[in-house]
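I have been asked to look over a protein record a colleague put together. Alongside the sequence sits a line of tokens, each denoting a local backbone shape. Please read both lines and tell me whether the tokens look consistent with the sequence. I do not need a full report, just your reasoning and any doubts. I have pasted the whole thing underneath without changing anything.
>
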Amino acid sequence: MILDFVVLFLVLVASIALDVRCVIAQSADLILHHGKIVTVDSKFSIAEAVAIKDGRILRVGRREEILRLKTAQTRLVDLAGKTVLPGLIDSHVHPADACLIEFDHPIPEMETIQDVLDYVKSRAAVSKEGEWIQVRQVFITRLREQRYPTRDELDRVAPKHPVVFATGPDASLNSLALKLSGMDRNFQVTDGGPGYVEKDPDSGEPTGIIRSCTRFIKARPNSRQPNDEDKKQRLLELFEDYASVGITSIGDRDASEDEIQRYRELHRDGKLKTRVSLSHHIETIGALEAVEESIRKVAGDPLVKGDDWLKIIGIKTYLDGGMLTGSAYMREPWGVSKLYSITDPKYRGVLFIPRERLLPIVKTTLESGLQFTAHSQGDGAVRALLDVYEELDKARPVRQNRPCITHASFMSLEAVLKLAKLGVVVDVQPAWLYLDTRTLAGHFGYDRLRFFQPLRSLFKARAIAGGGSDHMQKIGSMRSVNPYNPFLGMWVTVTRKAKNYDGTLHPEEALTREQAIRFYTANNSYLLFREKQTGSIESGKLADLIVLDTDILKCPVNEIRNTRVLQTYIAGKLVFERK
């Protein structure tokens, strides 16, 4: 009888201990309640409260239900009806470069040729004779005059300095920069890559404009250069600004070895406060065997396994030129253009990688278990990459690698349906529609832009498209070259309206508000192989979420772009709060 009593007592103690553990397991560290929790789950459910424990979502639901999980240690946040979204994701940024652009001195916004010349003149005044002056990524399509500064104009404001005004692979150089770079009337591209130097038809001398061969410019930096600690600190400052507009995860779509090492060190030291998915840069010029070996080397990096904060997901390269520089590879000719300096009526742009090289490069990437993506602006480049994916899919389904097309600005219905069938994903930059529609419509005409960023068609076909910014210069979501404010991006996808453009660009391709939110959350989490951890507010997922001052599902449509983030949480920790 005593033995039975002892057994009963032990069972009771064990039961109580189990109940205590269950209570502890179900108690929340943080509860956000009395709000509009937009979960972005498969049903796009709306909840009233969310409980967080150990950096993850414990439960989402009705306020009364969630408040039962509080203890004396639980922090309660009364949302007072405010809207909560999953942490936003930008699928395409270049933060390591962008954060350093103004390290030495502020760079003003340039909207006219005179702005450019004034800046060059100001730099010449504070630089030693012979030092290089560089202006990069001020796109001519966004200048009021919509042209390059000429060789003579650059000579006039900086006659004793080599000057380069570069936008992507194209540039305008002054006389001294041409001379120092060896670009005279006899210059020829000899490395097997694309490009040419424009020459005056009468004199045969270079005009100063070069196409797809900025790699030959012999420019040297003359400004104060950051050391490694400076680079890390600036990167952290940028990540803080990302958090201020609700961005909690990013895809670095062209990371170099040095930049990846910087990320490793920040993560090792516990300083990384933004989740980073990396596409390792790969050069495709040179021996094919060497290119393939470099891909396999990336696949062997321990970061391919990675963790919740830092992971290599694939490689990135460049398939064509740019739509802003007149070098995107199109299915049909660009058309003669003074703006883009196109004189050949048959010119279709520049394709950097021929099919016979592209196919084995993509094949090696996918066989190595990596995602392949390539800068592909024109519809000709999009088709070329899709054709390679389709060919490889015959032997081995490519869907499992989530092969990507970066930008895919110009598309076709055929391309939309094909990428949906193959499981190819795309990262798209709505800010380009906002900033560049005026120029593109003026050159191509409205009808040829029917499938420019065809987002509604992509959603309808059940293809996965995610929103990016291609942020490449400056810290500041609305002052950066290619603004990275995701609420501007959402507004553009919903309205299809553009700066300095009357009307709407093919409104039939506009997204609903729900789709616009998915575009920057769940879809991007899939693009970046993080859908099991982020992209929605669901039990078990990482507690990355943001509190807004605006209900973007119900507000007047033009208020979407002005939405402000009040709080940003990453892994349940408050990393930004608007004072």
